[in-house]
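Practice problem 4.
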């Protein structure tokens, strides 16, 4: 899988990935990506803003088909970081992983590897992510990839907080 920055023409690819992942998760009894605090129009605007800030990446195959996506943002651009999930000391020298979606573990691992490269290029020391509290399988996946569970914020659907030191930081 090759990585490239998303462009505004790619916003529908990200929305399609979300719809597909939501359906896949629903089949497994999870409402992740289905419960929307934001409507689709607002979500689309958030993705477009991330694309315009050059924070959203696509994983593509040799033919250019989109296989996954991830956004790597500074904490100031992440509503969850500034909404009290992370402390001020935790977000220092960190980037936040957002909207990561891939069809399988191998593609997810490739996205996480790319996150590490982006974080290192931005001189970040940590990558942070919040995980759907009820998605234990996803939480274990992140742990297998070196993320440590920091804490779970009560009452938050996506309140399981994980972090990983950036390779070479």
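Answer key:
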């Amino acid at each position: 899988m090759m990585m490239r920055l998303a462009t505004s023409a790619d916003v529908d690819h990200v929305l399609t990935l979300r719809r597909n992942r939501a359906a896949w998760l629903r089949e497994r009894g999870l409402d992740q990506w289905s419960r929307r605090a934001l409507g689709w129009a607002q979500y689309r605007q958030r993705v477009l803003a991330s694309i315009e800030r050059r924070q959203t990446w696509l994983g593509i195959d040799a033919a250019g088909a989109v296989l996954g996506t991830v956004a790597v943002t500074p904490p100031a651009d992440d509503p969850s970081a500034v909404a009290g999930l992370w402390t001020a000391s935790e977000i220092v020298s960190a980037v936040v992983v957002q909207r990561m979606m891939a069809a399988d573990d191998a593609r997810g691992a490739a996205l996480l590897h790319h996150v590490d490269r982006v974080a290192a290029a931005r001189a970040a020391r940590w990558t942070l992510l919040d995980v759907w509290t009820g998605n234990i399988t996803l939480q274990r996946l992140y742990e297998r990839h070196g993320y440590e569970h920091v804490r779970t914020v009560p009452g938050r659907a996506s309140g399981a907080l994980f972090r990983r030191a950036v390779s070479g930081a």
